Amino acid sequence: MADKFQAVVIGGGPGGYVCAIRLAQLGIKTACIESRGSLGGTCLNVGCIPSKSLLNLSEEFHKVQNLSNKGIEIGEIKLNLPKMMKSKDKAVTILTKGVEFLFKKNKVTYFKGTGSFKSKNEILIKDDKNNELVIQTEKTIIATGSMPVSLPGIKFDEKVIVSSTGALKLENVPKKMVVVGGGYIGLEMGSVWSRLGAEVHVVEFLDHITPGMDREISNEFMKILKKQGIKFHMQHKVESVKKNKSGAVIFTSDKNGNKKDFECDVVLVSVGRKANTDSLNLEKIGIDLDDRKRIKTQKNFQTNLENIYAIGDVIAGPMLAHKAEDEGIAVAENIAGQSGHVNYDTIPGVIYTTPEVASIGKTEEQLKEKNIKYKIGKFSFMANSRAKAIDDAEGFVKILADEKTDKVLGAHLIGPHAGELIAEIGVAMEFGASSEDIARTCHAHPTFSEAVKEAALSVDKRAIHS
Ligand code: FAD
Ligand code: NAD
Asked: Looking at the predicted structure, is the pLDDT value of residue 97 above 50?
């Protein structure tokens, strides 16, 4: 007799595991199927967590080399890469095991294997030894996430031509690394290997990095990364990559058709990710996909089939862990008869480089395009006492508020702890706050968050420290 569940979640990433836990909390008999052998998805295994671990460790390595400028003398500093990788792996193991513990605590049944549709109420699970099991379900939530894409004719070997997954476990520091694509992954992983000693070249198709980000921030970001030693080759399209004895050659052409080749020992291709839909046997049940093979959903995350839902990277929207998690909670609450929802206007985006870059709401470019009149408040970390005290004062806070109502429409930060500071603006925006509301809120001194308050004051041209 097949196991019977009220809900089955396919995929145990931040979308899927959070959804499964919330369903169980709401009293729904739930199972979650995950194929990679450990829970946490891309995020915990080969994404957010290992990359943030390496970003932190490489930043510590870089910082410690400059401590003598600040009166702290230490002996010779050496990199022990295998030990650094072990430290990263330990963080991953602790967190993935933690999710398994949460499943037990919440009584979510965990199946290890690949899930696919046998019918719209039956899921076939195949484990890595090809054992098969069919379970029955009333509702299914597809949360199978995404995987790296490459360019035509370029295959990942994860040693010389690497995706983010290979870039997280290189055995040696490359002498020269070419990063194809100046987006989130390219700049985070490029920063890691640059700090550890590689000469890093970013080859980007557009004339600016991090497409979609407020342009003023993107320009400042590139200026700072250049100062750190990363080299940029803008408006260069990568056409092909060929491996040779010592690594690879990258063939590019610029907008005028001029060719330029780059030799390197490792090339990281980070030109985006694609939805994981191939393993699900979706054709069998007739689930609609969009032109990028993402699952089409309505507002309540329902697909074209009434009892099947989809969330996270496998549907449209920013490919971010917190977006997937919030969708997981919302769909679980909807299934339980509540009114779960996600406010897509207030999803922050953070790049965990040094300095961090954080963004929420509309950019100046989007406001101009929509003909919305706005005011700008800006405050530099150079005038923030905490940032100056610790000599970490690059960047600024920029707040965009409606010209008439003063409602906060967006905020864009580059600077120390920007990824934490953005949360205050998220809360403000959720409550429909004005820039004056932020400006009138008492912020502790001396903190980086005072730069947010001063930027809010500056919307009305009354910043005190600039
Ligand atoms: P995933 O995390 O991809 O999880 C889906 C899971 O489903 C996978 O484990 C997969 O094995 C499993 N699966 C697929 N098909 C099947 C099947 N048929 N049966 C069973 N299981 C299946 N986002 C942030 O917000 N912050 C960051 O700092 C950040 N850093 C990142 C760094 C890197 C290097 C990368 C690659 C991504 C990063 N992201 C970050 C993006 C983030 O990881 C994703 O947006 C997030 O993991 C999406 O969650 P998800 O649950 O939709 O999918
Ligand atoms: P991305 O979309 O962020 O950036 C891809 C870049 O590659 C773009 O700038 C694009 O113009 C460029 N590009 C495309 N084709 C090219 C070509 N032929 N030659 C040169 N450049 C080319 O994609 P990504 O960096 O691979 O990251 C994928 C997703 O993972 C991100 O969109 C993000 O949602 C998520 N992610 C998030 C974080 C974070 O939240 N901190 C970190 C890593 C990844």
From this structure: yes
- In short, whether 204's Cβ falls inside 6 Å of ligand 2 is yes
Query: 25 is written with which tokens?
Result: 């909390």
Q: How far is 50 from 163, CA to CA, in rounded Å? A: 14
CATH topology of domain 346-459: Enolase-like; domain 1 (3.30.390)
Q: 446 preceded by cis ω (within 30°)?
A: yes
445 is catalytic: yes
User: Hey, what CATH topology would domain 161-271 get?
Assistant: FAD/NAD(P)-binding domain (3.50.50)
Q: Determine which residue's CA is closest to atom 10 belonging to ligand 2.
A: 181
Question: Looking at residues 64-79, what average pLDDT do you find?
Answer: 93
Measured CA angle at 393 (ends 392, 394), to 5 deg: 110
Closest residue by Cα to atom 45, ligand 1, is 320
Architecture of domain 4-147+274-342: 3-Layer(bba) Sandwich (3.50)
Question: Which ligand is located closest to the Cα atom of residue 165?
Answer: 1
> Which pairing describes strands 176-180 and 266-269: parallel, antiparallel, or unpaired?
parallel
Cβ neighbors of 337 (< 8 A, separation 6 or more) are: none
**pLDDT tens per residue, range 372-391:** 999 999 999 999 999 999 99
